[in-house]
Design a protein that fits this description.
Length: about 190
């Protein structure tokens, strides 16, 4: 497990088709040495206000987004738009496919949505089911691994190491070293 102080950014948002259940979020947070922010978010809530509040949190958190990242918001856009605008690092939790050899259509669709909106995506994690690494490599998606049904497995340890490495790589590659903020915001003094 990693120390929360060793992470390159304040925290991660965990997204999933239909919203994230709390149980896998708690497991992923524990694997990464983060604390889960059990903050229910209402569909009418302003994403900018939520993301601003996250910037004020003590580093070392994981926020499971209980809403679908593609769901239309009361105002304009969707959560994916806001996450991309704020350059908030994200993990995508996807359901297992029906069979290990089945195509990952849902995973591809959500990956495309996050990519289109400019979200810094660490990668995809398959939740449960059977893990077929050869087939997942053929998907052409940035899979991090698999969260098996049984905790404390070798698969979880491998997933934790891969997530940590990808988080650091994504953070180093960020084009703007400033803290997270809305589009056009700047803290630089001229």
């Amino acid at each position: 497990m990693q120390s929360a102080l060793s992470w390159p950014t304040g925290g991660l948002v965990l997204v999933a088709p239909g919203g994230v259940p709390l149980a896998p979020a708690d497991r992923l947070a524990a694997l990464l040495g983060l604390r889960t922010l059990p903050r229910p978010i209402a569909p009418a809530e302003d994403p900018a206000a939520v993301l601003h509040a996250l910037g004020l949190e003590t580093p070392g958190w994981l926020l499971p987004l209980c809403l679908d990242p593609g769901q239309q918001l009361a105002g304009a856009g969707c959560w994916a738009d806001a996450l991309g605008a704020w350059r908030q690092p994200v993990l995508l939790l996807t359901p297992a496919v029906a069979t290990a050899a089945a195509p990952a259509g849902v995973a591809r669709a959500y990956h495309a949505l996050l990519q289109l909106t400019g979200v810094p995506l660490l990668g995809l994690i398959q939740s449960g089911g059977e893990w077929a690494p050869e087939q997942r490599r053929c998907d052409g998606l940035p899979w991090l691994g698999w969260l098996p049904a049984s905790p404390a497995s070798e698969a979880e340890l491998a997933l934790a190491a891969t997530m940590a490495a990808r988080w650091r790589a994504i953070s180093v590659a960020r084009p703007d070293p400033l803290p997270l903020g809305p589009p056009g915001a700047t803290d630089r003094q001229v």
